[in-house]
Design goal:
The protein is mainly beta. It contains no helices and 11 strands. It has strands spanning 3-7, 10-13, 18-25, 32-39, 46-52, 57-59, 67-72, 77-82, 91-100, 106-110, 114-119.
Length: 120
């Protein structure tokens, strides 16, 4: 079973930057993507960014131009560089790995979450 270990969260002032990392241990299927979700207090978990094995990337509208996702396939690690942070970015950020089997059935793995707090 794949395990995801996140790091890099913390407290930062508005306008500051943080870099999140998520390392996956175990064997990952070729058809997969790794990405980030976040959940603010009292809100639903929402997707932030994802990067596919073929290099394709997807971003939520509210982070475009500020966040950059990257992936090191050799290390099974995904990063989220967050710049120009805003107080509304405050949330627990979760790493997600979605793998597809030969039948196209998806399996999700989640990290434990890392707190990002942006002060005004």
């Amino acid at each position: 079973q794949v395990q995801l270990v996140e790091s890099g969260g913390g407290l930062v002032q508005s306008g500051g930057s943080l870099r999140l990392s998520c390392a996956a241990s175990g064997s990952i299927s070729g058809g997969s993507y790794m990405g980030w979700y976040r959940q603010a207090p009292g809100k639903e978990r929402e997707p932030v960014a994802a990067q596919y094995t073929d290099g394709g990337r997807n971003y939520a509208g509210f982070v475009k131009g500020r966040f950059t996702i990257s992936r090191d396939n050799a290390k099974n690690t995904v990063y989220l560089q967050m710049n120009s942070l805003k107080p509304e970015d405050t949330a627990v950020y979760y790493c997600n790995l979605r793998e597809y089997d030969d039948s196209g059935v998806a399996t999700d793995s989640w990290g434990q979450g890392t707190q990002v707090t942006v002060s005004s």
